[in-house]
Amino acid sequence: MTKEHPHAGGETQLAENLTVNEDHVLAHNVDEEPVEANRRLFTGVLLKVVVLLAIAYSGFHLYTLNVAPMETWSFRIVHVAGALVLGFLLFAGARFVSGEEGAARHRWTTWFAAAALIPAVYALYQTYAFHQMILGGTMRIPAELESWHFGWPLLAATGVGIVMSWFHQRERARFSVPDLVLIVCSVAVAAYLLVVFNTTMRMTTGTAFAPVGISFAAVAGTALIMELTRRVAGMALVVIALVFLAYVFAGPYLPGFLGYPGLSVQRFFSQVYTDAGILGPTTAVSSTYIILFIIFAAFLQASKVGDYFVNFAFAAAGWSRGGPAKVSIFASGLMGMINGTSAGNVVSTGSLTIPLMKRVGYSKESAGAVEAAASTGGQIMPPIMGAGAFIMAEITGIPYTDIAIAAIIPAILYFASVYFMVDFEAKKLGMRGMREDELPNLRLMLRQVYLFVPIIILIVALFQGYSVIRAGTLATISAAVVSWISPNKMGLRQILHAFEIAAYMSIQIIVVCAAAGVIVGVISLTGVGARFSVLLLDVAAHSHLLALVFAMFISILLGMGMPTTAAYAVAASVVAPGLVQLGIEPLTAHFFVFYFAVVSAITPPVALASYAAAGISGANAMSTSVASFRIGIAAFIVPFMFFYNSALLMEGGWFEIARALITATFGVYLLSAGVLGWFARSAAPALVRLLLVAAALLTIEGGLWTDLAGIGLAVVAMLIQRKRAPTLAAA
């Protein structure tokens, strides 16, 4: 999703966020929630209504997860419906216009939408009538009644509401009638599913006995999810979801492995709103772990811990060569781990770090690329890993703690690679660090180191055996308690504000998970994932490496333009089963897919994180994406090593793991030197760069003989560089 920051003006943002006081504290409000270009900014009564709904939505989840558990599917239905209601309240379907211009443009759409409001309300009323019939002992509602008094009115209202919202242009502080229609339709879908779907009729889904109203509700619900996804995450995921939906009905006519017997419209949609699709693993995770950690992140944000993370990074590393770039690695990695979105993290922390990188000598492209690579790396940084670790645990059944432990070495290698690239470029260009009088006071930062306590409590609780939900709740409570001894104390107002911003932050990821659920449903119901696995096995018969390369390209292709959560969920359904059938361990296979789904955010030609960084730095978007791809190059190599050396995922003895870490880190160092062309204090010629890249690949591989060969090539490269040193000095 492309976000518009309230002060997205590069140097202007630096002036806004970088104010130096007597302690030289730089960062202020860097983790302030960005305001998207199509987000409404209400005032007065409307603002109060939205705030109360947002607080209630977040509070409902925290209460239900910890105090009064709700029946699983009912909880997920309410979870998705609440996000749809808040999403249509907050995000407009068309651009905003000024008063006089808008008056002429919204008049006809208002009348059409007002007419559509009648069938929408009627469909909602029918859910109440059906409920009364069921309470009266009716075992099955007549199909004609469901079709003509609920289904067709609901579909008509949904279709008219969506289309009118595309043309309905109003002022930013005004609500719209088309979106009111969509809200009523969202409530009607949820009400029907809770009344009819959540009874004994639920057992009939996918059969000829399924009530026809479920299919109508699922079609309308899917359309509403697609429309809100378009508003908050762009067209990429919508287009991919529509392609998969088209495959459901076109598949029987396709040749080769894509062909399948076919599903009717009613049979498919009677199942897509079950745990085989929208209410499946992706929504299961978003309704529990993700929403909980979004609330945790909101509490950290409300208590200004994000500012502290960035200021601490500046105090610790800002003085070194290319200081702001190294600060970006630390701060963006830490914040990206928590907030779960690469592009959103670029906008928040990059608004401060990118202008500072440009100030000390980095080009616009390099400054944006470093921020994009660091923010993307946050998605693979344990213990939280954005939201991917939770979805991986849900899909594979592997304990979350095992996944977090396995991610340690790959995360070290990724951030070490980015650090080496940044440091080599700083040496190459002769950059300086920031002066002491430009940096925050390190002693002051160390006195506030207790602000890391909530994250420490989270990690300790997880590894003490607490459930993820209990550990996340304890960390959230500790964030509020710790704030009471910090300069930014959280009172009741700040706590309620944290619940409010948590609801706003959650809308995108919840609706994206629901949209990904549609794709996952298509894959499971049509069996295309299994047929893809057969294709992957055929490729592997010739070469396992070729099969892995094929899986890499598919994972990146599926992830382009999509948020990390959706990208991994889709790739895990299509690619990972085939890798498991190749004999790869499930953890290794899913990590392989997960890493390439993550780095799709910095992979040209569609690189969301790089594009967001380019918007702040003022650089060309494609140039920035190419530069970020180069900086994050290790992430494209390390996953292949999982297949050859499982010690990189902490599987094996301690000596084996330690040797793998040391040699792989050395390999990443050589790889960075070879890619950037700087080694042994001087620029490296083409031959030396080739030797360094070859040595890097050999040492990352992890075998004893390959390590020795890699070290040998590195020594040769060093000797060549030393032999050239007198010549370079004379020049």
From TrEMBL:
Keyword Membrane: yes
Membrane-related topology note: Multi-pass membrane protein
Segments traversing the membrane: 45-65, 77-97, 109-130, 150-168, 180-201, 207-225, 232-258, 278-300, 403-422, 442-463, 468-486, 501-523, 535-560, 566-584, 591-614, 626-645, 657-680, 686-719
Primary localization class, coarse: membrane
Domain of life per record: Bacteria
Pfam families: DctM
Keywords attached to this entry: Cell inner membrane, Cell membrane, Membrane, Transmembrane, Transmembrane helix, Transport
Record domain TRAP C4-dicarboxylate transport system permease DctM subunit: where: 222-650
Compartments (UniProt record): Cell inner membrane
Coiled coil: none
Record-linked PANTHER family: BLL3936 PROTEIN (PTHR43849)
Annotated function: Part of the tripartite ATP-independent periplasmic (TRAP) transport system.
Protein name in UniProt: TRAP transporter fused permease subunit
UniProt source species: Marinobacter daepoensis
